From TrEMBL:
Keyword hit for Protein biosynthesis: no
InterPro entries, sorted: Flavin_Rdtase-like_dom, NADH-dep_flavin_reductase, Split_barrel_FMN-bd
Matching SUPFAM superfamilies: FMN-binding split barrel
Identification of the protein by name: Flavin reductase
GO molecular function: FMN binding; riboflavin reductase (NADPH) activity
Keywords: Oxidoreductase
Pfam families: Flavin_Reduct
Domain Flavin reductase like: from-to ranges: 25-169
Domain of life assignment: Bacteria
C-alpha cells in the first residue's frame, strides 16, 4: 500500500524557460471549453479554458484551472455553481471571443440557464454543471474541483480541439 507525502518537496528552478515549457505543453492536444457562472449579484462570467479533466466517476468530479491573475477569479470564487461547456467544432469564434479581455463575452452569445442557474452555451458538445467540491493552490493557478450535478451531451457533434497554439475543427489522420 502506498501513501502520499504530507508535503511536496521544495520547488527547484527548472533548466528551461516558461516559454519552452508552454511550447512543450502545447504539443498535448486538448478539447476546448468555456467555463461559465453567475456571481452572487447575477453577473455572467465566462472564459475559454483547455485545462479541463475528469477526476472521479464516484462521486462524479471534474477539474479545471484558472490563473490567479484572471479578472474572473473573484467571480468564480464567489459563484455557487459553474458550468463547463465543451465546445463543438463550429464554435471556434466563441472560443476566441471568450479568450479576449475587456469585452462583454456574452454579448450575442446564445445561452440558457442550466438547472443550477449556471449559463449553458447553446450548441456545446457536452455540458457539466458543477458545485464547488474543492479548490487547490497550485503555483500561479488555482485548481477548481467540481462535483457534477447535471451533465448532458450532443451525440454525433464534432469537438473543437487545441494543439500547438491553434484551434482545429478537423484533425488529419
Amino acid at each position: 500500500m502506498s501513501t502520499l507525502p504530507d508535503s511536496a518537496p521544495a520547488a527547484v528552478q527548472p533548466p528551461f524557460t516558461a516559454e519552452v515549457f508552454r511550447a512543450a505543453l502545447g504539443q498535448f492536444t486538448t478539447g476546448v471549453t468555456i467555463v461559465t457562472a453567475r456571481d452572487p449579484q447575477g453577473q455572467l462570467i465566462g472564459l475559454t479554458a483547455n485545462s479541463f479533466n475528469s477526476v472521479s466517476l464516484t462521486p462524479p468530479l471534474v477539474l479545471w484551472s484558472l490563473s490567479r491573475q484572471s479578472t474572473s477569479m473573484p467571480g468564480f470564487l464567489r459563484a455557487s455553481h459553474y458550468a463547463i461547456n465543451v465546445l463543438a467544432a463550429d464554435q471556434r469564434l466563441l472560443a476566441e471571443r471568450f479568450a479576449r479581455k475587456g469585452i462583454d463575452r456574452f454579448e450575442g452569445t446564445p445561452w440558457r440557464a442550466g438547472l443550477t442557474g449556471a449559463p449553458l452555451i447553446d450548441g456545446a458538445v457536452a455540458t457539466f454543471e458543477c458545485s464547488h467540491h474543492g479548490r487547490h493552490d497550485a503555483g500561479d493557478h488555482v485548481i477548481f474541483v467540481g462535483q457534477v450535478e447535471h451533465c448532458n451531451r450532443r451525440v454525433g457533434a464534432a469537438p473543437l480541439v487545441y494543439h500547438g497554439g491553434r484551434f482545429f475543427t478537423d484533425l488529419p489522420i
